[in-house]
Amino acid sequence: MEDASFSNKESKPIGFAPPFIDEDTIAAVSRVLRSGWITTGPETAAFENELAQYCGAERVACGASWTGLAGVILDWFGVGPGDEVILPSYTYCATANVVLHRGATPVLVDLPEPSNQDGLNIRWADVLPHLSPRTKVIMPVDIGGWPIPASDWITELTAWSKENGFQASNGVQSQLGRPLLLLDAAHSLGAALDGAIVGSQADLSVFSFHAVKNLTTAEGGAVAIALPAPFDAHDVHQTFRTLGLHGQSKDAAAKFQSGAKDAWRYDVTTPGFKCNMTDIQAAMGRVALARYSQDLATRRSLADRYDGGFDAWTEVILPERSDARRVSSDHLYPIRLPRFSEDQRNALMAWLQGKGIATNVHFQPLPMLSAYADRGHKQEDHPAAMGAYSCEISLPIHLHMSIQDVDRVVQAVREGHAHVMAQTEDSKA
Questions:
Q1: What is the pTM of this model?
Q2: What per-residue confidence (pLDDT) applies to 115?
Q3: Residue 102: which residues within 8 A CB-CB, separation 6 or more?
Q4: How far, in Å, CA of 142 to CA of 78, rounded?
Q5: What residues form DSSP beta bridges with 60?
Q6: pLDDT at 333
Q7: Phi/psi of residue 53, nearest 5 degrees
Q8: How many CA atoms does the CB half-sphere of 24 hold within 13 Å?
Q9: CA dist., res. 63 & res. 199, Å (int)
Q10: Helices (H), 311-402
Q11: Mean pLDDT per 10-residue interval, the chain, length 429 residues
Q12: pLDDT value of position 2
C-alpha cells in the first residue's frame, strides 16, 4: 500500500473506464481505411466467425450496437403490443427501452432479498411469479460480467411452458414453443458457465462493444446464436443481418464484390432498421479479440488485488467473481457499503473524485427514471434494487491500471469511508 499521506498532486488521475487502443488497433483501422472498403464487408464477416469460435456459438451476427441488435431480435420474434418481456429493474435503461419501442410491456423484477450468491442479478425464482400467457421473452442481465446460469433457466422455462402452455402468435414463436431466453450479456463477454464461455447457453446472447466495455469497437455489438432445433443458425444469422440493413436482401459487399451479372439487384423483404457493423469497427474488434484472453487475465489480476485489499473489511460487500460453476468477465468491480445511505455514498464518490479517482454507479433502478416512473413503475415495489443502488459504487478496473493503482483506490475508499462516517457522526452531535 502507498503511504496514507498520498495526495492528488502526487498521483495521476485514475479514470473510470478509458478505452484501450493500442498501436495494433490503429494499424488495423488504417489498413481498412486504405483498403477502400469501410462498411460491412470481409472484416465484419471474419470478426463474426472469430467471435463464434471464441464463445462456442453456432453463428454470431454483428451490429452497430447492443440496442440495435436487441431490437432486431424482438422484431424477428414478433414482440409487439399486448406482449410482455420480463427483465430486471436493476439494469441500464436500454434493456427496457427496446421493449417499449416495440409497443410491448416491460415487466420489471426486483433483486432477491437479501442479496446472495447471485450478486446483483435476478434469479429464476424471481422470474417465475411474473410468467403469464403474455410472456414472450425473458431478458436477464449479467450485471458486471457475473453470468446467470442460463442453461438452468432454459430447462426451467421449457418445463414451465410444457405445463402451462405457450401462446405463439407467429411461425418463429411456434418453432420455439416457449418464451425466448434473450440474455443481456452486454457485460459478460468472456465470462464462463460450467466451463463454457457465455454465448452458447441462452437462446440468444447479446454483447456490447461500447467504448467502456472490455472489448470495444467504439460502438457496436454482437448476438451469439444458440437456438435449439429446428432453427438453422445460418438462416437466423442471415435474417438478423437483413433486418439490420433495412430488410435489404444483399449488403454492399454482396452487391459489388461478387462480379455476377445483375449482382446489384436486391429485394427488401421487410421494413427493417439500420444497425449494421462497419469493417472499421470489426477491424478494431478483431485485434481486441486476438488478445482478449490476455486482457481478461489482466483484469482478473486487478480484481484479485481489490479482493485482497478489502479482505476482512467488514464495511464492504464484494462482487461475486467465481464459484463452482461460474467465472466473471470482471467488466465491473461493484462494491456495496451496507451502512451507507445514498447521500453518504454520493459523498464518498465526491471525496474520491477529489483524490483523482473516478467511480460510477451501476445502476439507477428503472423506477427511478422518469420514463418508467411516468409509466407507473414505483420505487417502493423494488426495495431490494433500491437498497443495492443506494450503497453501490463501481470502482475503476481497466487495462490502463496497475496493481499500485488498485492499492491506491483501496486505501482511498477505506479512508473516504471513515471520513464520511466521521462527518455523519459530527452532524448528529
A1: 0.95
A2: 58
A3: 71, 74, 75, 79, 80, 83
A4: 24
A5: 224
A6: 98
A7: -65, -40
A8: 8
A9: 16
A10: 342-354, 370-373, 383-391
A11: 39 95 98 95 97 98 98 98 98 98 98 79 97 98 98 98 96 98 98 98 98 98 98 97 92 74 87 95 98 98 98 96 97 97 98 98 98 98 96 98 98 98 80
A12: 35
Final residue belonging to a domain, choices 290, 314, 336: 290
Q: Provide the pLDDT for residue 93.
A: 98
Pairwise CA distance, residues 31 & 217, whole Å? 15
C-alpha cell at 204: 440468444
CB 57 within 8 A of CB 203: no
Q: Are residues 66 and 86 in the same domain?
A: yes
Same domain, 348 and 252: no
All three cell numbers of 176, joined, read 420455439
Q: Give dist(CA 282, CA 43) in Å, integer.
A: 6
Indicate if 300 and 249 belong to the same structural domain: no
Q: How many domains does the chain contain in total? A: 2
How far is Cα 47 from Cα 53, in angstroms, rounded to an integer?
10
Strand order across the beta sheet in which 221-225 lies = 59-63, 221-225, 204-208, 180-184, 135-138, 84-88, 105-109
- At residue 114, the pLDDT reads 64
- Whether residue 395 sits in one domain with residue 320: yes
Q: Are 182 and 223 in contact (CB under 8 A)?
A: no
Between the CA of residue 48 and those of 35, 105, 148, 289, 340, what are the distances in Å?
Answer: 20, 32, 24, 11, 44
Yes or no: say if 99 and 87 are a contact pair by the CB < 8 Å rule.
yes
- 252 found inside a domain: yes
Give the C-alpha separation, 176 to 157, whole Å.
Answer: 11
Domain that residue 151 falls in: 23-290
- The pLDDT tens digits for 296-313 are 999 999 999 999 999 999
Q: What is the pLDDT of residue 256?
A: 74
The CA distance from 182 to 179, in Å, is: 9
Beta strand 180-184 with 392-395 is unpaired
Give ∠ CA 79-149-55 in degrees, rounded to 5: 80
In angstroms, the CA 283 to CA 274 distance is 20
Contacts of 226 (CB under 8 A, 6+ apart): 57, 58, 199, 200, 201, 202, 203, 204, 205, 233
Side-chain-side CA neighbours of residue 67 (13 Å): 12
Please say which residue of 290, 305, 320 terminates a domain. 290
